[in-house]
Amino acid sequence: MKFGLQLGYWGAQPPTNHGELVSTAEEAGFDTLFTAEAWGSDAYTPLAWWGRQTSRIRLGTSVAQLSARTPTACAMAALTLDHLSGGRHILGLGVSGPQVVEGWYGATFPKPLARTREYVDIVRQVWAREAPVASAGPHYPLPRSGKGTATLGKPLKSIVHPLRPDIPIMLGAEGPKNVALAAEICDGWLPIFYSPRLASMYNEWLDEGFARPGARRGRADFEICATANIVITDDRTAALAAMKPTIALYMGGMGAEDTNFHADVYRRMGYSDIVDDVTRLFRAGRKDDAAAVVPDELVDDAAIVGDIDYVRKQIAAWEVSGVTMMVVNARGAEQIRYLAALCGADSVADAGM
C-alpha cells in the first residue's frame, strides 16, 4: 500500500506547517503530495511552492476544477510543473458542483461527463504536440469562431515541448457514470469517501469503463488513490465525533439541496434518511445538531479509527478491496512518520521509528 499526503485547500488563512509536512512525507517514503481547491486558494500555486523543496515525491492536484481553467490553460500549467519537477506531476481533475461552477466561475454546469471527456482530449492534444490543437466542441471549441468572435483564431501548438507527452490524469469521481469514465479515459480514480464495504459496487462501475473500446488501462495498471481518515487511538468515540462536523458540511452544505454529489455517496451507502436529516438541519443553520445526528457507523464506513492492530488490519482490507494508495490528511509530522513506520514505507529508518 502506498501513501499520499493531502494538503487540501486553505481555510481563512494559509496553514503554517505545510512545509514541515511535505519534507517529512518525502523523507518517510510517501508516494505523492496532493493539493486541492474550492473557492479560495488554488491547487497549482501551493503544489509548485512546496514541490520545489522535494526531489522524489510525485506532485498531484486532487482536484483541479475543470471550470477554473480552460483545457489549454490547464495543459500549460501541467506541462510547466512537470518540467520543473522532472516529470513528477499528476493532473487530478474534477467537475466540482453546480453551486461552484455557476456561482463562482460563472460557467455552465450541465453535461459534466461530456465536458470532462472533451476537456481531457484537448489537454492530451496539447501534451502530445502532434498537431495544432483543435476541437469541434461543443463545450470547448478550438479555434472559436462565429457570432461574437473576431474570427481570426487559428489552431496552435504549444511553444514548449512537454517533458512527457502523456502526463498521468486522474479523475475525482463519485457517481457510477463518472467512475466508469475515469476507468475509460484516465490513469486513476480519486474517490473522496471510499468504503471498502462497497468495493463490489465500485468494481462494477470500473469494469464498465475498462471494457469500453479504446480504454487506456485495465485494473492491473490503474491507480485508485482514496482519501482515508486514519486515526490511531484508544478512544474511538471521541475520534469519530471529531469527524462529524466535516461530514455534516459535505453531506448537508456542499452543493445545492437537491444536487449534492457528496450526499449521494452516502445515500448509496444506505444512509438516505440520515442524509435528509443532516441536510435539513444544516441548511436551517443548526450545524451542531446536523453533526450530532451523524451516527458512528456512518463515519466508520469511510474512515479507519482505532488502536494499532485495528488500523493495520483495516489498511490491509482497503488494499484487498482495490485501493492502491491511501491519501491522508496529517495534523503533524509525527503522524506521517508513524503511518510510514506502521505500514513499512521505504524510509522507516529515516522516520526514526
Describe the structure.
By secondary structure, the chain is of the alpha/beta class. The chain has helices at residues 18-27, 44-51, 71-84, 98-103, 112-128, 176-185, 199-210, 236-252, 261-268, 272-283, 287-292, 296-301, 308-321, 333-342, 348-351, and strands spanning 2-6, 32-35, 58-61, 64-65, 89-94, 169-171, 188-189, 223-227, 229-232, 303-306, 325-328. Strands 1-2-3-5-6-7-8-11 form an eight-stranded parallel beta barrel, surrounded by five helices. Helix 3 links the parallel strand 4 (64-65) and strand 5. The radius of gyration is 20 Å and the shape is globular. The two termini are 18 Å apart.
Question: Gap between N and C termini, in Å?
Answer: 18 Å
The stretches of 5 or more residues where confidence is low (pLDDT under 50) are: 345-353
Biggest sheet layout: 8 strands, parallel, barrel
> Which structural class fits the helix and strand makeup?
alpha/beta
Strands side by side in the biggest sheet: 1-2-3-5-6-7-8-11
What's the order of the H and E elements?
A: EHEHEEHEHHEHEHEEHHHHHEHEHH
Helix content: 40-55%
Strand fraction equals 5-15%
Q: What is the alpha-carbon Rg in Å?
A: 20 Å
Q: How many helices does DSSP assign?
A: 15
Query: What is the molecular shape?
Result: globular
**Count the strands?**
11
Overall mean pLDDT score? 93
